[in-house]
Write a structure and sequence with these properties.
Length: 175
């Protein structure tokens, strides 16, 4: 299996599950809600090349596969109240790009957590380049985009990267 192989299958499966644009989800705490997902038109090769030239980056293969399927998306928005799981389009990435910090590229916002690519890891061809954080404080998630995206969809938009830190004592205090 090569990087990028899972992206198309994950997106297709998710789109197939959307009945009339919605799906019913059971999430943490036993809550059930009606969710929708919004996918944008795929990126054109020309636009992808322009983007990489403009901010002087080489994107990883798995992320390029994602962009060729959808140039960003909104996942698992509550039909009544909206949501906060946004994978940015190339245009949004440029809008949020900090030209003074080319080490990290913000690609998503998931319920106030900002998701970044560690550009040095990508340049060094390291497979684990996804980071979570903000304001110069980043924590590695020890995965690539494809694995992160697959787990995000599997967890139905939940911040699965926090689950390992959630003890029973902490879980009940948050509720």
């Amino acid at each position: 299996m090569q990087p990028g192989d899972i992206i198309g299958r994950t997106l297709k499966s998710l789109k197939d599950r959307l009945e009339h644009g919605h799906l019913q989800l059971q999430v943490e705490g036993g809550y059930i809600y009606e969710a929708k997902c919004t996918f944008y038109d795929p990126v054109l090769d020309y636009d992808l090349e322009q983007f990489m030239g403009k901010i002087n980056v080489q994107l990883p293969v798995d992320y390029i596969q994602f962009l060729k399927n959808t140039n960003g998306c909104r996942l698992f928005d509550d039909v009544m109240f909206g949501g906060e799981a946004v994978l940015f389009s190339l245009q949004e990435i440029i809008k949020f790009h900090d030209e003074n910090n080319n080490d990290y590229l913000k690609i998503a916002s998931i319920y106030q957590d900002k998701i970044y690519f560690d550009m040095k890891s990508i340049s060094n061809r390291q497979g684990n380049y996804i980071m979570v954080g903000d304001y110069q404080e980043y924590r590695p998630l020890n995965m690539n985009f494809e694995l992160w995206f697959d787990r995000l969809v599997t967890s139905q938009g939940a911040k699965f990267w926090e689950w390992t830190w959630d003890s029973a004592e902490h879980y009940y205090k948050r509720r």
